[in-house]
Request: fold
Amino acid sequence: MRRAPWWVLLSSAGAPVFLVGGWTIAQRLQGPAYDPAGDTLSVLASYGARGYWLMTGVLIVLGASYLATAHGLREAAFLGRLALAGGGLSAMALTLVPAPISGGALKHGLVAGTGFVLLAVWPALAAKRAGKGGGKGGGRNVPWALNFKVSVAASVLMCAGAAWFAVELQNGHAPGVAERVVTFVQAVWPLVVAVSCRVWRDSPVTAGP
Reply:
C-alpha cells in the first residue's frame, strides 16, 4: 500500500516551482538595481517593490503547499507534520509583515526566523524508526526519506544552511545566495519525502531467529 495520496505529489512539487519561478520573475521586474547575491528575497517582497504582489502571491501559495503536504504525509510523525504546517503558516504570515524596502524590521525577522526554524527541524521530527508496528512480520519498514538517520541528516543540513544565511546577513557578503540555497532545500525536501512515500510499499521487517 502506498503511504501518501497522489495529490501530495502536486502540493509538494508546487513549493519549489512557485518559489524559484516567483523570485526569478520578481527580480527581473525589480531591474538591475537589485543584486541577487547581496540582496535578500525580502527586498523583492517588500511593500513598494515592483514584484510585491507577485511575491505576496508566491508566499501564500508556498504556505498552502506546505499545509496541504503536511496533511497528506500521514506516514510522517505528527510533530514533523505539525512543524511543516507551522512553516507554511509562517510563510503566509510574512505577507502581513512585509519588510521595508530598506533597513530592518523586527516583526518580519521574527516571523521569517520562526519559519526557517520550523522548516529546518520538521524532517527530524517527522522521522520514524523501522521495526515498529507489530504483526507477524516483526514490524514494518519506513520510506527511506523518513528513516531516522536520513531525516536527522536533512535537518542538520538545513540548520547549517540557516546558520550560513544568518552569518551572511551580519557580514553582508552574499546573503541572497545563502537564502536562496536554504529556502530551495527546505522547499524541495517535502517533495522528496512525498516521492519516497509514494514509491515505497509496506514490507514486513523479518523477525530475528
Q: What stands out?
A: The radius of gyration is 19 Å. Residues 132-139, 205-209 have pLDDT under 50 and may be disordered.
